[in-house]
Amino acid sequence: MLDKIFAAIGAATLSLAAFTGGAQAQEDPVKVRIGTLLSEIVGPPLYVADDYGIFAENGLEVEVIKFDNGTQMTQALVGGSLDGALAGAAVVSSIAVRGLGVMVTPTYLEYDTNLIYATDASGITSVEDLRGQQLAFPFGTTAHVLVSSALREAGMTFDDIRAVNMGYQATTAALLSEAVPAVVISGGFVEAVTRKGAKRVTSLRDFYPETAVLGGLVLSNAFVESNPEALPKLAASVIEAQVRLTEEEVRRKVYDDYFSKLETYEAFDYAYNLGRFPTAPEWSAFFADGSVANWAIFTAEILKEVGALDRIGDPEDFLAPDVFNAGAALVNQ
């Protein structure tokens, strides 16, 4: 499938003028439904590309749809109610790596986005202390990768804990109310839980760079097959949005528009900086040296090991470096 798509992309990029100016204005915009999370490092590129007219400039009419977790997005992609998702490693694994879609644009590496916290009253201070205890987290997500990595490092398995499937916002509420002794939270909730006396047990940074959790834009096979010439435009839009996000003024606007009712700017900025955001040339190099494939497969192997994934495909089938590089060329023209 990708060979045909790359051939179409190559033909399209021979005439970059077709993507810009008057020629584009005469075309009907390509409609795309993209899901994402209201997470500090995941959603902002879509918000910027939409709010600053970057999608429109590239002949795209994008509907950004918010979800509570990656599992919901995966179900929507499989069910056909989404064309794509800008999401974390769990969605990359359950859609792209499984062969149900293609990752066209990686956007971030999760350095310390997910953290295990415990109530002060629980007495839990280490992963070993979780033995026999409830630990709430959203199954099949980056949180699952963290828990698996932590248990493996401690010589434990999921049988040693009482895992509870719960979304990120719900885990935070459960910890604050002490309904459960330990949970996985996202970085944006650190301020809230520490204010209540909760203690950090471990987090992704303790397993980095071996656990370099990868996120990015994944598109369904159906959309990829039907809209090959739109793929570089989508990649270009996300790449340009990532560049814009290096400006604090742009990040501040994202905060004001989407996060100000949820947290302070300091908390938003803290959570945003828990990610790592390679430049387009850096991503191109990571594609070329096999790093992107290795990161994607590493996470997929953990999810497969715990039963959250049934198969792992070939990177040549689920990664699209040619699309990414074509998008980067559009940004730089």
Automatic annotation (TrEMBL):
Record's protein name: ABC-type nitrate/sulfonate/bicarbonate transport system, substrate-binding protein
Ranges of residues in domain Solute-binding protein family 3/N-terminal: 31-262
Keyword Cell inner membrane part of the UniProt annotation: no
Compartments, as annotated in UniProt: Periplasm
Main location: periplasm
PANTHER family linked to this entry: ALIPHATIC SULFONATES-BINDING PROTEIN-RELATED, TAURINE-BINDING PERIPLASMIC PROTEIN
UniProt cross-references to InterPro entries, sorted A to Z: Solute-binding_3/MltF_N, SsuA/THI5
Highest taxon of source: Bacteria
Family: Belongs to the bacterial solute-binding protein SsuA/TauA family.
Signal peptide bounds: 1-25
Keywords: Signal
Gene3D superfamilies: Periplasmic binding protein-like II
Entry's Gene Ontology cellular component terms: periplasmic space
